[in-house]
Amino acid sequence: xxxxxxxxxxxxxxxxxxxxxxxxxxxxxxxxxxxxxxxxxxxxxxxxxxxxxxxxxxxxxxxxxxxxxxxxxxxxxxxxxxxxxxxxxxxxxxxxxxxxxxxxxxxxxxxxxxxxxxxxxxxxxxxxxxxxxxxxxxxxxxxxxxxxxxxxxxxxxxxxxxxxxxxxxxxxxxxxxxxxxxxxxxxxxxxxxxxxxxxxxxxxxxxxxxxxxxxxxxxxxxxxxxxxxxxxxxxxxxxxxxxxxxxxxxxxxxxxxxxxxxxxxxxxxxxxxxxxxxxxxxxxxxxxxxxxxxxxxxxxxxxxxxxxxxxxxxxxxxxxxxxxxxxxxxxxxxxxxxxxxxxxxxxxxxxxxxxxxxxxxxxxx
Length: 365
Ligand SMILES: Nc1ncnc2c1ncn2[C@@H]1O[C@H](COP(=O)(O)OP(=O)(O)OP(=O)(O)O)[C@@H](O)[C@H]1O
Ligand SMILES: [Mg+2]
Description:
Protein name: ATP-binding protein
Bound molecules: adenosine-5'-triphosphate, magnesium ion
CATH topology of the largest domain: Rossmann fold
CATH class of the largest domain: Alpha Beta
Organism: Ellagibacter isourolithinifaciens
Strand content: 5-15%
CATH superfamily of the largest domain: P-loop containing nucleotide triphosphate hydrolases
Keywords: ATP-binding, Nucleotide-binding
Distance between the termini: 42 Å
Number of domains: 3
Shape: globular
GO molecular function: ATP binding
């Protein structure tokens, strides 16, 4: 059989051909873009562990916004971010007015609108807020909204704090603006604790986590079939199980399995078994090791104190005892780890591992 292109996308920030899950959330945002300029979701913070799908979700939502009369400026939080937002906004505006569908809508020729871009680009013509306001004025004449997405937020970046303070004015001035920010939970909560960005505390907060089994299964099947192969039910459920409901792991399992099934039009259980094994290794190297590097000794001691329960939920009191600490001490770490999406609380007084393969890795090392 002719080999077809591997449809899985195990690389960071890469939007997969079929997005698993997140349907309700995406639906809410589509409504917000098309119906309600005051929808609280238009100022949203996305947080979750590495590889959970934050960047991809923001890119996907930006595309949805673009389909509803918005333009988007997508940047990463790093020095130069403010200028980058200006440039990306100009680019997006210029691209929009060049679209045939937009040209048809407007009777006047507006191609000249952004051609005097030096006015916006040159800092002699006003500070950042002034120059942005000028662009927003023009966009407003055509009811075009501006969505700004800021990825990998860094609470120590001064520009991010300045930006947030200024953005608040755009909102107060009733401009058609939206803001999405995404980052690791520790960074999001550190940013929120900064006094000068208190308005961000009222933003809608979305903690991204596991994707439902059924959604993973559907996405697997669709991705595979659209790319020209098929998969039996047993192989499919084995593949879904191997992902642990984790977005990046789904792409790894799919990618590796596809290679195993290169010469066959049907993906079999044996392909998935080998693919999943390789995917586990990739996941440990790409995610688990990096995640553990970010943790404190106390965090790790807490996770290790969960190991004797062998994957069953651990009682908080047992964990405290195994750590040789008071329950109050253990609770501090519990909160931090839950916030980071590494463990979850299935019921009161208990915790269990949330991130796939974290437990297995700690057992072996
Ligand atoms: N809903 C989804 N369904 C299927 N695959 C997804 C989904 N979301 C993300 N992915 C895949 O998961 C991987 C990680 O996604 P992404 O880069 O968005 O993660 P992230 O949360 O931004 O990670 P980081 O914190 O490291 O930036 C990518 O390979 C992407 O293709
Ligand atoms: Mg990302």
